[in-house]
Design goal:
Layout: E1 2-4, E2 7-9, H1 20-24, H2 29-46, E3 50-53, E4 57-66, E5 72-82, E6 87-90, H3 99-105, E7 109-110, E8 115-117, H4 125-140, E9 145-146
Helix pairs in contact: 2-4, 3-4
């Protein structure tokens, strides 16, 4: 299960044949600018290129998983969605406690696997990059991550 647009649901999300530029063109100007900055942060922190997933999610890296229940699937390793009310940042696989990093980030809220930010300008981009790297390190200790 993953957090998509603030709702935890089973995966129905998949990669779309859409470029980042085409996706950014669909966003309001202020969110488009934030998404461009997030793309730069995610590329540098993750080392992966972007892929556009259904639901307006920009993902970086992929992993395949199989739970003890037998449920399996594929999901992005990290990413974001530039929503109207807030930015949904997918950096925490939900296994580790990143409280010490989050304390230095700036104003945010968290869900099980999501971080919510209202304005990118209000958080520290270096701390966000650190959080992305920490989330990927935690995820890769459980599932192999593939480049995108």
């Amino acid at each position: 299960m993953h957090c998509v647009g603030g709702v935890v649901s089973t995966l129905k999300t998949k990669v779309l044949p859409l470029s980042l530029e085409d996706h950014l063109a669909t966003l309001p100007p202020n969110r488009g600018q934030e998404a461009k900055l997030l793309d730069k942060i995610f590329r540098e922190a993750s080392g992966y290129g972007p892929e556009i997933w259904t639901g307006g999610i920009v993902g970086y890296g992929r992993y395949s998983y199989t739970y003890a229940s037998g449920h399996s699937g594929e999901w992005m390793a990290t990413g974001f969605a530039a929503r109207k009310a807030k930015l949904s940042i997918y950096v925490m696989p939900g296994y580790a406690d990143f409280g010490l990093i989050l304390d230095r980030l700036g104003p945010h809220k968290t869900g099980k696997s999501c971080l919510y930010i209202t304005r990118l300008s209000r958080v520290d981009p270096d701390v966000l990059a650190e959080l992305i790297r920490a989330g990927l390190a935690d995820l890769s200790s459980r599932w192999p991550i593939r480049a995108t």
